[in-house]
Amino acid sequence: MREIRADEIKRAVKKLCMDANYYLPQDVIDALRKGYEREVSPIGKDILKKILKNIEVAGKQKLPLCQDTGVAVFFIDLGQEVKIVGKSLEDAINEGVREGYSEGYLRKSMVADPLFDRTNTKDNTPCIMHIRIVRGNKVRIAFVPKGGGAENMSRVAMLKPADGVKGVKRFVIQTVEEAGPNPCPPLIIGVGIGGDFEEVSLLAKRALLRKIGQHNPNARYAELEDELLVEINRLGIGPQGLGGRITALAVNIEHFPCHIASLPVAVNLQCHAARHKEIEI
Fold first, then answer.
1. Which terminal residue of the chain has fewer beta carbons within 10 Å of its beta carbon, N or C?
2. How many C-beta atoms lie closer than 10 Å to residue 249's C-beta?
3. Are 110 and 125 in contact (CB under 8 A)?
4. Is 230 contained in some domain?
């Protein structure tokens, strides 16, 4: 059994919170540059140029890429041979978020109660954690600061099995079309298919962690990713919703077995500031 001190996890999370909000992953930057080359709309091209400049300034000056530094979402793979010592894993993660958002001058966006007492918690906690137990003696932590604009336009549908591929495509495209400019395109689109009501949402969000250009290993799902990306970019929504060819940079699909009577589908939209960062301890 390997012992990992909670304070080590706290420090790692603190750094993840700041770095993810300052530095965009290289695959996203590369996709935006390719989008700039392919965009035919003068306004769309200018917007992409400004987005790339914003990324450059944020990285150099250690400033948030976007004023909405999001809900702190964590996907944690906890090795079954790991023992967390000093305090609980949950407390360590929340303390890391608290320190990272405070010392990193990141906007705090969490309210204490969703309906009756919408008072800001003032430290961006509590965070959201999805923990799964895996083999080994390490902890892998993936952090996603999820902004409200894109998250608000995400959707879940419990389709009928008879709806099939056409029904899935119709729902995904309709979700993007109805979202329009609200999620700040160009988008990365996470799609979950299968599982049940809650699992399909997690699949869609996990899909956002995949690098742009890395397809689903199943050839049929990889083909569906390509087809959806082409059709979505034909919508003409364009960068920031002002028209153009580049509405989305990628469509990533994750799937899971499901009930014989069900065909759950979830679409989790991610804006062009597709921030995420991972660390292994």
1. N
2. 24
3. yes
4. yes
